[in-house]
Give the backbone structure.
Amino acid sequence: MKEKPKIQHKRLAEFLECQFSIEEENCGVVDEILKMCSFENLSNLEVNTSEKLLTGEGNKTFFRKGEIGDWKNYFTVEMSEKLNRTIEQKFHGSGLKFLYT
C-alpha cells in the first residue's frame, strides 16, 4: 500500500465494486482521496490532535509513526498470533489473502 498507493487504491475500489471512471482518474479524484486519507493528513487533523474520548484519552493515541512494521514494537508474539487468527476467522471466504511478516 505504501509503495504504490494509487495502484492499490484503485485495486481496492475494484474489489469493492466501485471503480473509478476514466473521467474521475483524469480529474485527479484518486490523488485527492489519497491525499485526504494519508497518514500525514489524518494524524494532523484538529480532531485527532486536540480532542479526547469520553475516557479522557486523546485521539492522538491512535496514531503512532505511520511506518511499516512499527506494530511489532507494541504487540507481543501472543497478541500477533491472536490477531492473525481473528483476521482469518472474520475474512474466511472473502477471497482476501493475508501475508504475515
